[in-house]
Amino acid sequence: MLFIFCMVILVFASCDLLNDVYDFYTSDNPVIGNNNSTTAEVVSEESKASLKIDKDLKIVALGDSITRGYGLGNPEKERFTALVAEQLEKIYNHVEVTNYAVDGMTSSGLLDLLESGGAEKLKEADIVMLCIGANNVLQYAADLFLHDNTDIQKLLEAYGSFLLGDRSNTDAPQAVKAYFEKVTAYASSPEFTIKLEDGLAKLREDIPVIISFIRKENPSAKIYFANVYSPYKGMNITLPYVETILPLGDLSDQNVEKINKIIDDLKDAGGYTVVDVYTRFKNSREKIINAGLDLSTMNINFDPHPNKRGHALIADEYISVLTEDYIP
Fold first, then answer.
1. DSSP annotation of 16
2. pTM as predicted
3. Could you say which DSSP state residue 126 is in?
4. Which of 68, 40, 3, 1 is nearest to 311 (CA)?
5. Is the pLDDT of residue 54 over 60?
6. Which of 96, 145, 219, 323 has its CA 20 to 30 A from that of 233?
7. Cα dihedral across residues 109, 224, 134, 19: positive or negative
Protein backbone atom coordinates (compact mmCIF):
# COMPACT_ATOMS: atom_id res chain seq x y z
CA MET A 1 0.00 0.00 0.00
CA LEU A 2 1.32 3.35 -0.99
CA PHE A 3 2.02 5.77 1.87
CA ILE A 4 2.09 9.35 0.74
CA PHE A 5 3.54 12.03 2.98
CA CYS A 6 3.73 15.77 2.48
CA MET A 7 7.04 15.98 0.68
CA VAL A 8 6.80 12.77 -1.33
CA ILE A 9 6.48 13.44 -5.04
CA LEU A 10 4.72 10.88 -7.20
CA VAL A 11 4.72 12.92 -10.40
CA PHE A 12 8.09 12.96 -12.07
CA ALA A 13 9.23 14.37 -15.40
CA SER A 14 8.82 11.97 -18.31
CA CYS A 15 11.85 9.76 -18.70
CA ASP A 16 13.91 9.84 -21.87
CA LEU A 17 13.39 6.94 -24.23
CA LEU A 18 15.97 4.29 -23.43
CA ASN A 19 18.55 3.75 -26.10
CA ASP A 20 18.09 -0.01 -26.06
CA VAL A 21 14.41 -0.32 -27.08
CA TYR A 22 15.43 -3.10 -29.43
CA ASP A 23 18.34 -3.74 -31.76
CA PHE A 24 17.36 -5.75 -34.76
CA TYR A 25 20.93 -6.18 -35.89
CA THR A 26 21.88 -8.54 -33.09
CA SER A 27 21.38 -12.31 -32.95
CA ASP A 28 23.10 -14.71 -35.30
CA ASN A 29 24.45 -12.38 -37.96
CA PRO A 30 28.27 -12.70 -37.96
CA VAL A 31 28.78 -9.14 -39.20
CA ILE A 32 26.06 -7.07 -37.52
CA GLY A 33 25.71 -7.35 -33.75
CA ASN A 34 29.22 -8.41 -32.81
CA ASN A 35 30.70 -5.34 -31.17
CA ASN A 36 34.08 -7.02 -30.92
CA SER A 37 34.32 -7.70 -34.62
CA THR A 38 36.59 -5.47 -36.66
CA THR A 39 34.44 -6.31 -39.68
CA ALA A 40 31.40 -4.77 -38.01
CA GLU A 41 33.25 -1.51 -37.60
CA VAL A 42 33.71 -1.04 -41.33
CA VAL A 43 30.27 -2.10 -42.54
CA SER A 44 28.96 0.68 -44.75
CA GLU A 45 25.45 2.09 -44.69
CA GLU A 46 25.00 0.60 -48.16
CA SER A 47 25.91 -2.83 -46.86
CA LYS A 48 23.46 -2.49 -44.00
CA ALA A 49 20.74 -1.46 -46.45
CA SER A 50 21.46 -4.53 -48.54
CA LEU A 51 20.65 -6.72 -45.54
CA LYS A 52 17.12 -5.34 -45.35
CA ILE A 53 14.14 -7.34 -46.50
CA ASP A 54 13.07 -6.08 -49.90
CA LYS A 55 9.52 -5.35 -48.80
CA ASP A 56 7.44 -2.44 -47.57
CA LEU A 57 5.18 -2.79 -44.54
CA LYS A 58 1.93 -0.91 -44.09
CA ILE A 59 0.47 -0.49 -40.61
CA VAL A 60 -2.94 0.84 -39.63
CA ALA A 61 -3.42 1.91 -36.01
CA LEU A 62 -6.93 2.02 -34.55
CA GLY A 63 -7.68 3.23 -31.06
CA ASP A 64 -8.11 6.03 -28.58
CA SER A 65 -5.97 8.81 -27.12
CA ILE A 66 -3.19 6.43 -26.10
CA THR A 67 -2.68 5.38 -29.71
CA ARG A 68 -2.92 9.00 -30.82
CA GLY A 69 -0.18 9.96 -28.38
CA TYR A 70 -2.12 12.34 -26.15
CA GLY A 71 0.08 14.49 -23.93
CA LEU A 72 3.38 13.77 -25.67
CA GLY A 73 5.62 16.62 -26.74
CA ASN A 74 6.02 15.21 -30.24
CA PRO A 75 3.41 12.49 -30.75
CA GLU A 76 4.30 11.93 -34.40
CA LYS A 77 7.68 10.60 -33.28
CA GLU A 78 7.14 9.58 -29.64
CA ARG A 79 3.93 7.54 -29.66
CA PHE A 80 4.33 3.80 -29.59
CA THR A 81 3.16 3.28 -33.18
CA ALA A 82 5.97 5.52 -34.46
CA LEU A 83 8.54 3.74 -32.28
CA VAL A 84 7.47 0.35 -33.59
CA ALA A 85 7.72 1.61 -37.18
CA GLU A 86 11.16 3.07 -36.46
CA GLN A 87 12.44 -0.32 -35.35
CA LEU A 88 10.79 -2.27 -38.17
CA GLU A 89 12.32 0.12 -40.68
CA LYS A 90 15.72 -1.23 -39.69
CA ILE A 91 14.64 -4.50 -41.26
CA TYR A 92 12.28 -3.48 -44.06
CA ASN A 93 12.69 -1.02 -46.92
CA HIS A 94 9.93 1.24 -45.69
CA VAL A 95 7.25 1.14 -43.00
CA GLU A 96 4.18 3.31 -43.36
CA VAL A 97 1.89 3.93 -40.39
CA THR A 98 -1.58 5.42 -40.80
CA ASN A 99 -3.02 6.37 -37.44
CA TYR A 100 -6.82 6.67 -37.17
CA ALA A 101 -6.89 7.00 -33.37
CA VAL A 102 -9.30 9.49 -31.80
CA ASP A 103 -9.26 10.92 -28.28
CA GLY A 104 -12.00 9.44 -26.12
CA MET A 105 -12.76 6.65 -28.58
CA THR A 106 -14.89 3.80 -27.23
CA SER A 107 -15.50 0.47 -28.92
CA SER A 108 -18.79 1.78 -30.32
CA GLY A 109 -17.04 4.89 -31.61
CA LEU A 110 -14.45 2.77 -33.37
CA LEU A 111 -17.16 0.67 -34.96
CA ASP A 112 -18.87 3.83 -36.21
CA LEU A 113 -15.55 5.03 -37.65
CA LEU A 114 -15.00 1.78 -39.52
CA GLU A 115 -18.55 1.50 -40.84
CA SER A 116 -18.47 5.10 -42.08
CA GLY A 117 -15.34 4.46 -44.14
CA GLY A 118 -13.09 6.43 -41.83
CA ALA A 119 -10.18 3.98 -42.09
CA GLU A 120 -9.78 3.73 -45.85
CA LYS A 121 -6.20 2.42 -45.77
CA LEU A 122 -7.30 -0.61 -43.79
CA LYS A 123 -7.57 -2.59 -47.03
CA GLU A 124 -3.85 -2.15 -47.73
CA ALA A 125 -2.54 -2.94 -44.25
CA ASP A 126 -0.15 -5.76 -43.44
CA ILE A 127 -0.53 -5.08 -39.72
CA VAL A 128 -3.46 -3.70 -37.73
CA MET A 129 -2.68 -2.30 -34.27
CA LEU A 130 -5.83 -2.25 -32.19
CA CYS A 131 -6.05 -0.50 -28.82
CA ILE A 132 -9.63 -0.02 -27.64
CA GLY A 133 -11.76 -0.66 -24.57
CA ALA A 134 -10.32 1.56 -21.83
CA ASN A 135 -12.80 4.37 -22.44
CA ASN A 136 -15.73 1.97 -22.21
CA VAL A 137 -15.07 1.97 -18.48
CA LEU A 138 -12.51 4.61 -17.59
CA GLN A 139 -14.57 7.38 -19.17
CA TYR A 140 -16.51 7.32 -15.92
CA ALA A 141 -13.46 8.14 -13.83
CA ALA A 142 -14.37 11.83 -13.92
CA ASP A 143 -17.77 10.98 -12.42
CA LEU A 144 -15.92 9.26 -9.61
CA PHE A 145 -13.29 11.88 -8.85
CA LEU A 146 -15.59 14.88 -9.19
CA HIS A 147 -18.42 13.29 -7.24
CA ASP A 148 -20.65 15.93 -5.58
CA ASN A 149 -18.74 18.60 -7.55
CA THR A 150 -15.88 18.52 -5.08
CA ASP A 151 -13.13 21.08 -5.68
CA ILE A 152 -10.27 18.64 -5.18
CA GLN A 153 -7.54 21.21 -5.67
CA LYS A 154 -8.96 23.50 -3.01
CA LEU A 155 -9.39 20.54 -0.68
CA LEU A 156 -5.76 19.52 -1.09
CA GLU A 157 -4.46 23.06 -0.69
CA ALA A 158 -6.19 23.40 2.66
CA TYR A 159 -4.94 19.98 3.76
CA GLY A 160 -1.39 20.74 2.60
CA SER A 161 -1.36 24.00 4.54
CA PHE A 162 -2.50 22.11 7.62
CA LEU A 163 0.39 19.64 7.24
CA LEU A 164 2.85 22.49 6.88
CA GLY A 165 1.78 23.91 10.25
CA ASP A 166 -1.21 26.13 9.53
CA ARG A 167 -3.67 24.96 12.16
CA SER A 168 -6.26 27.64 11.37
CA ASN A 169 -8.25 25.05 9.44
CA THR A 170 -8.41 22.08 11.78
CA ASP A 171 -11.21 20.58 9.70
CA ALA A 172 -8.95 20.06 6.64
CA PRO A 173 -8.04 16.40 7.38
CA GLN A 174 -11.68 15.62 8.14
CA ALA A 175 -12.74 17.19 4.83
CA VAL A 176 -10.28 14.98 2.94
CA LYS A 177 -11.50 11.95 4.88
CA ALA A 178 -15.10 12.75 3.95
CA TYR A 179 -14.11 13.09 0.29
CA PHE A 180 -12.33 9.72 0.31
CA GLU A 181 -15.40 8.12 1.88
CA LYS A 182 -17.74 9.64 -0.72
CA VAL A 183 -15.62 8.47 -3.64
CA THR A 184 -15.28 4.97 -2.24
CA ALA A 185 -19.01 4.72 -1.54
CA TYR A 186 -19.96 5.99 -4.99
CA ALA A 187 -17.54 3.52 -6.61
CA SER A 188 -19.59 0.65 -5.17
CA SER A 189 -22.99 2.25 -5.69
CA PRO A 190 -25.61 0.69 -8.02
CA GLU A 191 -25.57 3.84 -10.16
CA PHE A 192 -21.83 3.66 -10.85
CA THR A 193 -21.78 -0.14 -11.12
CA ILE A 194 -24.46 -0.10 -13.82
CA LYS A 195 -22.41 2.37 -15.88
CA LEU A 196 -19.37 0.12 -15.69
CA GLU A 197 -21.30 -3.03 -16.48
CA ASP A 198 -22.94 -1.39 -19.48
CA GLY A 199 -19.55 -0.29 -20.79
CA LEU A 200 -18.12 -3.78 -20.39
CA ALA A 201 -21.13 -5.41 -22.03
CA LYS A 202 -20.83 -3.05 -24.97
CA LEU A 203 -17.15 -3.90 -25.36
CA ARG A 204 -17.91 -7.62 -25.44
CA GLU A 205 -20.60 -6.98 -28.02
CA ASP A 206 -18.51 -4.66 -30.21
CA ILE A 207 -15.19 -6.51 -30.43
CA PRO A 208 -16.45 -9.40 -32.63
CA VAL A 209 -18.14 -6.88 -34.96
CA ILE A 210 -14.98 -4.77 -35.16
CA ILE A 211 -12.84 -7.79 -35.94
CA SER A 212 -15.37 -9.05 -38.50
CA PHE A 213 -15.29 -5.68 -40.26
CA ILE A 214 -11.49 -5.67 -40.36
CA ARG A 215 -11.47 -9.20 -41.74
CA LYS A 216 -14.02 -8.29 -44.38
CA GLU A 217 -11.94 -5.31 -45.51
CA ASN A 218 -8.64 -7.12 -45.26
CA PRO A 219 -8.63 -10.90 -44.76
CA SER A 220 -4.84 -11.21 -44.73
CA ALA A 221 -3.79 -8.50 -42.25
CA LYS A 222 -2.44 -9.62 -38.91
CA ILE A 223 -4.29 -8.00 -36.00
CA TYR A 224 -2.49 -7.16 -32.76
CA PHE A 225 -4.83 -6.16 -29.93
CA ALA A 226 -3.18 -4.37 -27.00
CA ASN A 227 -4.78 -4.96 -23.63
CA VAL A 228 -5.15 -2.18 -21.06
CA TYR A 229 -2.73 -1.16 -18.32
CA SER A 230 -3.96 -0.03 -14.90
CA PRO A 231 -3.57 3.78 -14.95
CA TYR A 232 -3.74 4.25 -11.18
CA LYS A 233 -1.46 1.38 -10.23
CA GLY A 234 -0.35 1.75 -6.63
CA MET A 235 -2.53 4.78 -5.90
CA ASN A 236 -4.17 3.39 -2.77
CA ILE A 237 -3.74 6.69 -0.99
CA THR A 238 -3.17 7.05 2.74
CA LEU A 239 -2.47 10.43 4.30
CA PRO A 240 -1.41 11.66 7.74
CA TYR A 241 -4.37 12.57 9.98
CA VAL A 242 -6.77 11.02 7.44
CA GLU A 243 -8.04 7.65 8.60
CA THR A 244 -9.76 6.61 5.38
CA ILE A 245 -7.89 5.11 2.42
CA LEU A 246 -8.71 6.18 -1.15
CA PRO A 247 -8.34 2.86 -3.03
CA LEU A 248 -7.81 4.21 -6.55
CA GLY A 249 -5.27 1.49 -7.30
CA ASP A 250 -7.64 -1.31 -6.34
CA LEU A 251 -10.56 0.22 -8.22
CA SER A 252 -8.41 0.69 -11.31
CA ASP A 253 -7.01 -2.85 -11.19
CA GLN A 254 -10.41 -4.46 -10.72
CA ASN A 255 -12.00 -2.77 -13.72
CA VAL A 256 -8.98 -3.06 -16.01
CA GLU A 257 -8.86 -6.79 -15.31
CA LYS A 258 -12.48 -7.04 -16.47
CA ILE A 259 -11.64 -5.23 -19.72
CA ASN A 260 -8.64 -7.46 -20.33
CA LYS A 261 -10.61 -10.62 -19.62
CA ILE A 262 -13.01 -9.70 -22.42
CA ILE A 263 -10.13 -9.01 -24.82
CA ASP A 264 -8.53 -12.34 -23.90
CA ASP A 265 -11.78 -14.32 -24.00
CA LEU A 266 -12.47 -13.27 -27.58
CA LYS A 267 -8.98 -13.68 -29.03
CA ASP A 268 -9.39 -17.24 -30.33
CA ALA A 269 -12.66 -16.57 -32.10
CA GLY A 270 -11.33 -13.25 -33.38
CA GLY A 271 -8.02 -14.66 -34.52
CA TYR A 272 -6.05 -11.73 -33.14
CA THR A 273 -2.88 -11.69 -31.04
CA VAL A 274 -3.00 -10.02 -27.63
CA VAL A 275 -0.16 -7.63 -26.83
CA ASP A 276 0.21 -7.80 -23.05
CA VAL A 277 0.78 -4.15 -22.16
CA TYR A 278 -0.90 -4.71 -18.79
CA THR A 279 1.81 -7.03 -17.48
CA ARG A 280 4.62 -4.91 -18.91
CA PHE A 281 3.31 -1.84 -17.03
CA LYS A 282 2.51 -3.81 -13.89
CA ASN A 283 6.09 -5.05 -13.63
CA SER A 284 7.70 -1.69 -14.34
CA ARG A 285 9.15 0.33 -11.47
CA GLU A 286 9.55 3.46 -13.56
CA LYS A 287 7.32 6.52 -13.75
CA ILE A 288 5.46 5.65 -16.94
CA ILE A 289 1.99 7.14 -16.36
CA ASN A 290 1.08 10.79 -15.82
CA ALA A 291 -1.32 10.17 -12.92
CA GLY A 292 -0.08 10.85 -9.42
CA LEU A 293 -0.31 12.97 -6.30
CA ASP A 294 2.23 15.66 -5.45
CA LEU A 295 1.49 17.23 -2.10
CA SER A 296 4.64 19.35 -2.22
CA THR A 297 2.88 21.41 -4.89
CA MET A 298 -0.64 20.61 -3.69
CA ASN A 299 -1.42 18.99 -7.02
CA ILE A 300 -3.28 15.82 -7.91
CA ASN A 301 -3.16 14.44 -11.43
CA PHE A 302 -5.76 11.96 -12.66
CA ASP A 303 -4.36 11.86 -16.23
CA PRO A 304 -4.30 8.14 -17.12
CA HIS A 305 -2.10 8.46 -20.21
CA PRO A 306 1.40 7.05 -20.56
CA ASN A 307 4.34 9.41 -20.72
CA LYS A 308 7.19 9.15 -23.22
CA ARG A 309 8.78 6.25 -21.39
CA GLY A 310 5.40 4.53 -21.15
CA HIS A 311 5.03 4.67 -24.93
CA ALA A 312 8.51 3.18 -25.27
CA LEU A 313 7.42 0.25 -23.08
CA ILE A 314 4.30 -0.30 -25.19
CA ALA A 315 6.43 -0.26 -28.33
CA ASP A 316 8.86 -2.70 -26.77
CA GLU A 317 6.02 -5.11 -25.97
CA TYR A 318 4.70 -4.83 -29.52
CA ILE A 319 8.17 -5.56 -30.91
CA SER A 320 8.53 -8.63 -28.71
CA VAL A 321 5.25 -9.97 -30.13
CA LEU A 322 5.94 -8.92 -33.72
CA THR A 323 9.34 -10.63 -33.67
CA GLU A 324 7.86 -14.03 -34.43
CA ASP A 325 5.96 -12.85 -37.50
CA TYR A 326 8.01 -10.05 -38.97
CA ILE A 327 11.60 -10.21 -37.78
CA PRO A 328 13.71 -13.03 -39.25
1. P
2. 0.81
3. S
4. 68
5. yes
6. 323
7. negative
Computed over every residue of the chain, the mean pLDDT equals: 84
Cα(314)–Cα(295) distance, integer angstroms: 29
Q: What is the pLDDT of residue 144?
A: 85
Long-range CB pairs of 70-73, under 8 A, 24+ apart, other chains included: 70/103, 70/305, 71/290, 71/303, 71/305, 71/307, 72/307, 72/308, 72/311, 73/308
Any idea which of 125-129, 223-227, 243-247 has the lowest mean pLDDT? 243-247
| Main-chain dihedrals φ then ψ at residue 264, nearest 5 degrees | -70, -40
Phi first, then psi, for residue 101 (nearest 5°) are -70, 150
- What are the backbone dihedrals phi and psi of residue 145, each rounded to the nearest 5 degrees, phi first? -70, -35
Q: What is the average pLDDT across 203-226?
A: 98
Question: 224: closest CA among 103, 130, 89?
Answer: 130
- What region does 53 belong to: left with phi over 0, alpha with psi -120 to 50, or beta? beta
DSSP 79: S
For the chain, percent of residues with pLDDT exceeding 70: 83
Report the 10 Å Cβ neighbour count for 56: 12
3-state helix vs strand vs coil in the chain, percent to 5:
50, 15, 35
Contact 295, 163 (CB under 8 A): yes
The answer to whether the Cα torsion of 202, 282, 72, 153 is positive or negative is positive
Class of residue 247 by CB neighbours under 10 A (exposed 0-12, middle 13-18, buried 19+): buried
Express each pLDDT in 240-285 by its tens digit. Answer: 999 999 999 999 999 999 999 999 999 999 999 999 999 999 999 9
Q: Which residues contact 162 (CB under 8 A, 6 or more apart)?
A: 169, 170, 172, 173, 241
Q: Strand, helix or coil at 304?
A: coil
Indicate the helix (H) or strand (E) that contains 160: helix 152-163
For residues 168-179, average pLDDT:
91
